[in-house]
Amino acid sequence: MFTSSTRSIPEQGSVPRHLAVIMDGNGRWAKKRFLPRVAGHQQGVETVRRTVKACIERGIDYLTLFAFSSENWRRPTEEVSFLMNLFISALEREVGRLHANGVRLRVVGDLSAFEPRLIDLVRRGENLTASNGKLTLTIAANYGGRWDLMQAFNGLALAYPEKVGNYAEADLEPFLAMSYAPEPDLFIRTGGEQRISNFLLWQLAYCELFFTDAFWPDFDEAMLDNAIASFRKRERRFGRTSEQLLAVPPSPTLTAVPGDA
Ligand code: IPE
Ligand code: IPE
Ligand code: MG
Predict the structure, then answer these.
(1) Ligand 3 center to 54 CA (angstroms)
(2) Full-prediction pTM beyond 0.85?
(3) I need a surface site. Which of 100, 114, 140, 189 has the fewest CB within 10 A?
């Protein structure tokens, strides 16, 4: 199990260990070029490829990309079906390359809504890459933070009915869709909106947030480095004071939170 940011202070490095991204602005990127919205999604896949490479080069261990939210079903049917086909073709084309580059692929979200062919590609891609250790790439597809919390609560209640009313945070965490990963340290949202849009609600508790106006298809290495540079300048206090952070080494009595494991 990884350190929970609300129960102990996570270790910190100069590069985020886990980067979570809301890839937004594809439609507006296309509109600006008088192209159909879906051309932006297509171009967005290129940015995913570049970003995976850039994250490996920078020593980031976990990259999580929000590809399709539980609310994105509200979009026009044609756009939804284009996105599904794009996901299928991206998996068909990219899984071999990801594997060759040592990337472990995971997909989180309610996959039951997807067509069997897509589910099969996801499972095969996950199995093929399961023991890779260079980077864990998670694609959040038909994912919603509330969906995740509800499926975790239900899983926990079914597994330990005798403890209802007495569950602790640590009991819930193994049931969350991303229990295999530490909490994100850095969150980036492209496309100019400053909101979470039902992404990782539980796991973003103490994440550093970075927003950029750049549309996802335009997001490049320099912008990633800019976000990492901003992350490096943040003082991550996790509830403590600045003065406490300056005390080296931090005394365990200062960092303890009631209920710390
Ligand atoms: C993000 O880009 C991709 C998905 C949500 C699938 P958008 O399609 O939301 O692009 P904008 O926000 O309309 O520009
Ligand atoms: C968030 O983008 C979801 C993904 C990037 C997959 P949206 O474009 O759907 O978010 P809202 O609707 O503007 O909040
Ligand atoms: Mg959008």
Answers:
(1) 23
(2) yes
(3) 100
